[in-house]
Write a structure and sequence with these properties.
alpha/beta; Alpha-Beta Plaits; Rossmann fold; 3 domains; 17 strands
Length: 355
């Protein structure tokens, strides 16, 4: 039976940002199912947001607080806190991770230091709370290195790091210990794919296992996507995923440094370039400009913004590097924060027409 409860109504374009902030503020009512219509997302709330909560939300999104009807989640799988009551000291229950990354049947969680001795119990509770999860891993460090990899500690379930992740109608075989993959970019993958036009040539400079490239190929009849990545393991999985999703002849995997690959094989042929390497994309804008056709095209650029850099700073740096590469920015089509990557830091997207 649906229940009428308080919620946040926010446009779909700003929905991911509103969700991230609401999770951080512990506002989301996990007992009810988030809903959406053609234009808006409706996020059920456990309480009335405080003035401080509202101030933080208003910084990033335009929304309204309203009453709406929500369905209860199907019972049968209890929440982590419910399962762990009586098994952990009450004060530590507040430290239980409230968010996790689900990649296929693998759950990736963050175990605070004070909960380390209970990680086995927590891992068992994660498995019990979601029957689709078969493996629980804990983050053992930050994303690092040229291939953007993270180390993990095994916590519970099957001892593995490889899985098949389903997203936007596609399947991706991925090994989370050998390749970079973020399920939190699902909306961004879909957004960029929806902007691609038939008969375009796309250069995906940091393709990973193919979440941008394969979705583009899957959703367009006539398209060529050159999917480049420096990590040999990523390209191996990319090849597997091309076959798995039946997009052979649309996606062309290329292993190596993006700048060298562009110079040798992709120079001057792209209508659109995707640059999802927020740590270093700014250093490869010359390669992106070189990949574009002489008449120009669209660049989807990703970077980090936060305490030390704003969206406006990112745009200024983008324009400066494009001009250094001998091109001009005709128009910045959009720029937005995509997801929070750490306290006070966001991954941001900038779309621009470059001539």
């Amino acid at each position: 039976m649906p229940n009428d409860i308080r919620c946040i109504k926010v446009s779909k374009k700003q929905g991911q940002i509103a969700l991230e902030i609401s999770k951080r503020l512990e506002l989301i009512d996990m007992e009810h199912v988030i809903k959406k219509d053609d234009n808006f997302l409706y996020i059920p709330l456990v309480r009335q947001p405080s003035d401080q909560d509202l101030k933080m939300l208003h910084k990033e999104a335009t929304f309204e607080i309203m009453i709406s009807s929500f369905k209860l989640r199907i019972k049968g799988t209890a929440s982590l806190v419910e399962i762990l009551k009586g098994r952990l000291p009450p004060l530590l229950l507040k430290k239980i991770p409230r968010a996790m990354d689900l990649i296929g049947d693998i759950a990736i969680i963050e175990i605070p230091a004070e909960l380390e001795r209970y990680k086995g119990i927590i891992g068992g509770a994660v498995l019990k709370s979601n029957k689709n999860i078969h493996t629980v891993l804990a983050k053992a460090g930050a994303i690092s290195g040229a291939y953007r990899l993270r180390q993990f500690n095994f916590v519970a379930g099957e001892q593995k790091t490889e899985t098949i992740h389903k997203e936007n109608g596609c399947q991706y075989q991925v090994d989370v210990s050998k390749t970079y993959f973020s399920p939190r970019l699902s909306t961004e993958h879909k957004r960029v794919a929806s902007l691609v036009q038939e008969n375009e040539t796309v250069a995906d400079l940091f393709a990973g296992v193919g979440p941008f490239a394969i979705l583009i190929a899957k959703t367009h009849e006539v398209v060529r996507v050159y999917a480049i990545d420096a990590n040999p393991d990523s390209v191996n999985y990319l090849n597997t995923n091309i076959r798995l999703n039946r997009v052979i002849g649309k996606v062309y995997p290329l292993q190596g440094d993006a700048r060298l690959i562009v110079n040798k094989k992709v120079a001057g042929i792209a209508d659109r370039v995707i640059m999802n390497l927020p740590e270093k994309a700014i250093d490869f804008l010359d390669a992106a400009c070189h990949a574009l056709k002489p008449q120009g095209g669209i660049v989807h650029f990703y970077g980090f913004v936060g305490a030390s850099q704003s969206l406006e700073d990112m745009q200024r740096n983008f324009v400066k590097e494009v001009e250094k590469a001998g091109r001009t920015v005709d128009e910045v089509l959009s720029q937005r924060k995509v997801r929070e990557t750490s306290p006070h830091e966001w991954q941001a997207a900038l779309d621009a027409h470059v001539h």
